[in-house]
Amino acid sequence: MGTRTVRFSWIVLLVGLAVLVVGIGLSVGGSADCADVETRAGNKCITYGDGAARTLDEAAAEEHPAAPLTLGLGGLLAAAGVWLVFFADRSVRPATGVGDRIELARRHGWRFADVDRELLADWADNPDFGADQPAYAVLRGSFEDLEFVVFDFRRPGSGSTGTAWVVYLPHPSRTFVEWATAQQPLYRRPLHKVGVRADAIVDIGREQHRSTEPDAVLRQIRALAEIVHRFEAQAAASS
């Protein structure tokens, strides 16, 4: 996400919250006074002409006419701001370069390589990868004490391209395959197509992932790391 986009998202959120606060103030801060067509007599407001009366407490309880509109507008802006800041997908067209991965490598001391010809040799049993195919735009690092790798690949046969995110287990475990295979509720957005093996869990995208926001590269890594950590926690609790 570019700096301008980040700033705009936060502005929408803050403006929405401000309008929402104003609307709440209008709703609860009714005026304890009589209207223009009324005259005050003690603690009552008497309407000109028909002599109808009401107490000041009843007058104060009336909601400001602009309160509902202000509350609605503030709620919509605040909701839009929350979505823009925390949930909006910053992916861009695959034609965009891999500057996001290069920036992450520079920022965190991770490793980036244009091509890795050995990476996919260990994934020969996965039909999306070809053992003799190289991996491209490879980012390697450590996230929450788990080793990971992000790379682009070309599918055998069709030649279509995609991006894969892999998180490795600290210690390989066949139990992890059985456990993770049964955890379908965990495989939710942003994950696409999850595969597991004794030493790793992988998410395979339908196409190449590109983003103007470096941290968007790690969305899948965070989700996969959460699954691994849940497995570790349950394994430790049962041992």
Please, could you describe this protein's structure?
It contains six helices and nine strands. With 239 residues, the chain is an alpha+beta fold. It has two domains: 85 residues, no CATH class; 140 residues, no CATH class. The strands form two sheets. A six-stranded antiparallel sheet has the order 4-5-6-7-9-8. Strands 1-2-3 form a three-stranded antiparallel sheet. The radius of gyration is 29 Å and the shape is elongated.
In short:
The protein is an alpha+beta fold.
Strand segment tally: 9
Mean pLDDT: 79
Using only C-alpha atoms, the radius of gyration works out to 29 Å
Oligomer type: single chain
How far apart the termini lie comes to 43 Å
Going across the biggest sheet, name each strand in turn.
4-5-6-7-9-8
Domain module count: 2
Low-confidence stretches: 55-61, 89-95
Alpha-beta classification: alpha+beta
| DSSP helix fraction | 25-40%
Shape: elongated
Summary tags:
6 helices, 2 domains, alpha+beta, six-stranded antiparallel sheet, 239 residues, three-stranded antiparallel sheet, elongated, single chain
